Amino acid sequence: AAPGSPTLRARKLACPQCHGSIKLQNPDASLRVGCPYCGALLDCEGDLKILAKFGGKRIKPLLPLGTHARFEGEKFVIIGYMRRAAVVDRTEYPFDEYLLHHPAKGYRWLVCADGHWSYVSPLDPGSVRGDLNPSALGATFKHFSTALVAVKFVVGEFYWRVAVDDQVLASDYIAPPYMLSKEAVANEVTWSLGRYLTADELRTALAQPKLVLPRAD
Predict the structure, then answer these.
(1) Which helix (H) or strand (E) holds 199?
(2) Which helix (H) or strand (E) is 136 found in, with range?
(3) Given the DSSP bridges, would you call strands 41-43 and 91-102 parallel, antiparallel or unpaired?
(4) Mean pLDDT, to the nearest integer, of 70-83?
(5) For residues 79 and 99, what is the distance between their CA atoms, to the nearest angstrom?
(6) Are the beta carbons of 148 and 135 closer than 8 angstroms?
(7) Which of 20, 25, 175, 179 could form a disulfide linkage to 37, CB 3.0–4.6 angstroms apart?
């Protein structure tokens, strides 16, 4: 994960495809942006350039870009959204990921799978020991699942060069209410730690006590 650092003020740009106004919340660190109007994937390293047009069905995130959420005693802002899917026995299992940003804390994630929510933080790979049943932060985790995970849709800002159809091999390990996740691609491995959130905890973090959430399966 990219380290947190002081950022420039938000920057407004026009999508070169549909000319919609795009507000970059973290313009000095974002490398890719998905246009919320036409779905085009744009390179924002300099002037916006079209990398790929999106021909599929656009998805409206439940939590809009720009939504604030309070975690770790700080107010984060949602700057990006991805729909990804795990592929198991030729069947896709979709889930949603919201990228949170704070100028000093850096990046976090809100993940929703089958109506269940988690707050996810990046981990230094050196803090994880073992692979089959890895340990981290004083706990040992048991293997839960391993699957290819593919990007299906993106909107908003991202600090890496994301693209639709990007794939990683993802492995999840559990020690409830926590889940340790490993993602591997080429020679790169990243680890993250998720903490399960109840519906009420999420509503409190969002300061939206009446927010209607998807039913948990």
Answers:
(1) helix 199-206
(2) strand 135-136
(3) unpaired
(4) 97
(5) 6
(6) no
(7) 20
The percentage of the chain sitting over the pLDDT mark of 70, rounded to a whole number, equals: 96
Decide which of 107 and 25 is more confident.
107
Measured between alpha carbons, how far is 104 from 97 in angstroms, rounded to an integer?
21
The SS3 of residue 42 is strand
159 or 7: which carries more pLDDT confidence?
A: 159
Write a three-state SS string for 49-101: EEEECCCCCCCCCCCCCCCEEEECCEEEEEEEEEEEEEEECCEEEEEEEEEEE
**CB under 8 Å to 200, separation ≥6 — which residues?**
none
Concatenated DSSP letters for 162-185? --TT-EEEEEEEEETTEEEEEEEE
Q: What's the mean pLDDT in 69-89?
A: 95
Note the pLDDT tens digit of each residue in 183-208.
999 889 999 999 999 999 999 999 99
C-alpha 141, offset from chain centre: 22
The residues, any chain, with a CB within 8 Å of residue 63's CB and separated by 6 or more, are 78, 81, 98, 110, 206
Contact 77, 63 (CB under 8 A): no
Q: Minimal CA–CA distance to 5: which of 120, 101, 127?
A: 101
What is the distance between the terminal CA atoms of the chain, rounded to a whole angstrom? 30
Coil, strand, or helix at residue 115?
coil
Amino acid 123: pLDDT: 94
CB-hemisphere CA count at 13 Å for 79? Answer: 25
Backbone phi and psi for residue 163, each to the nearest 5 degrees, phi listed first: -150, 150
